[in-house]
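Handout, section 3.2

Students often ask what a structure token actually looks like in practice. Rather than define it abstractly, here is a full record for Bifunctional folate synthesis protein. The first block is the sequence as you would receive it.
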Amino acid sequence: MSRFGPHLDATGRPYDQVELIGLRAFGRHGVFEHERADGQEFVVDVVLHLDTRPAAETDDLTRTAHYGELAVAVADAVRKDPVDLIETLAARIADVCLEPGPVRAVDVAVHKPEAPITEAFADVVVAIRRVKPPAPLDVPPAVPTRVVLALGSNLPSRAGDRAATLRAAVQALLAVPGLAVTTVSPWVETAPVGGPEQPDYLNAVVLATTTLAPRALLAAVNAIEESFGRRREIRWGARTLDIDVITFGDLLSDDPELTLPHPRAHERAFVLAPWTLADPEAVLPGPDGPRSVPDLLAVAADRPDVRPGGPL
């Protein structure tokens, strides 16, 4: 376990940990000539702090830390150019561990059991923690920022039927600190798109402003989904409640955990139709510039499947 305790995410939740303990590699680090000439074995412990939930939900290795590749990279860091101090070596290893990927922080302990000490001793250890600079998804906006959330339900929940679930979800959003709901669209009924055979959906869109970081907002809406019994067992399967972050201001993100704008929003009438009802002048930001939401709705393939509903 980490010598420094947990590392917390933007919501105060401890990150999960992946540990690589007791990795042994030969290096020539030290201030003495014989250490450079003869070399010695170093032992490295690494604790990675990251959110493993996206990998667990998708069973996708690319969304977690590949500890096999990490072991090779850490050993190579020990074997490469000599340095005087194991503090320097520990920092080198930390940099390797924090390269692009889901790791948010790393603890590195470098053991030098053959250190040139004249007294009896068991080990010499330098332990450090390094934290990756915040990614754009982890930085709260300087001023309240407009966000668009899409809600959907096609199974009853603890709140009741689909409409009752959407109404209760709006109330839950109203209670999220740092999120101010400004507009709630009427609900529409739509046929399911993709996935197994399942009941029709009720969909709505919520316009809001937030001072939360994007990833913190995602965590908040995911927690609401879970409180209504949402289970992610079948991709595009039936659900009690789905809340997607569609836009976060003009922020563009290709992070697989939170892609912004939502990668399929531009072609989904079940998002575009209630969004247009909430804001007839809405635009969807994108790398090629903003696009009119009503214009996107006009050409959406599933537009004929949208049936008018009523207010939430």
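Discussion prompt for tutorial groups: The chain has two domains: 16-133, 138-308. How would you have guessed this from the sequence alone?
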